[in-house]
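User: Design a sequence. Structure:
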């Protein structure tokens, strides 16, 4: 029983670390901050700005971008949830 408990704990810690590091990598790729001297990471999205008479229009919209980011985070969390110990 101790071996199984140890295995379960190790598996949990591994999944937790992998999930955290994946979410952190996603956050770093999505942020505009990067350290000087390093090249910026490749972009996650291409966004077109269109100027009209009243302001600026984004293609895709901010709502579309946000839903794509949320969908990616949910998919990442579901990967860890699908693993059975």
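Assistant: Done.
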């Amino acid at each position: 029983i101790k071996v199984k408990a140890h295995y379960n704990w190790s598996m949990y810690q591994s999944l937790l670390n992998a999930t955290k590091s994946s979410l952190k990598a996603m956050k770093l790729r999505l942020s505009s901050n990067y350290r000087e001297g390093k090249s910026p990471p490749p972009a996650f999205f291409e966004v077109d700005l269109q100027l009209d008479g009243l302001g600026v229009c984004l293609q895709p919209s901010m709502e579309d971008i946000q839903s794509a980011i949320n969908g990616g985070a949910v998919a990442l969390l579901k990967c860890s949830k699908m693993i059975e110990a």
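The beta strands are 48-51, 56-59. DSSP finds two helices and two strands in the chain.
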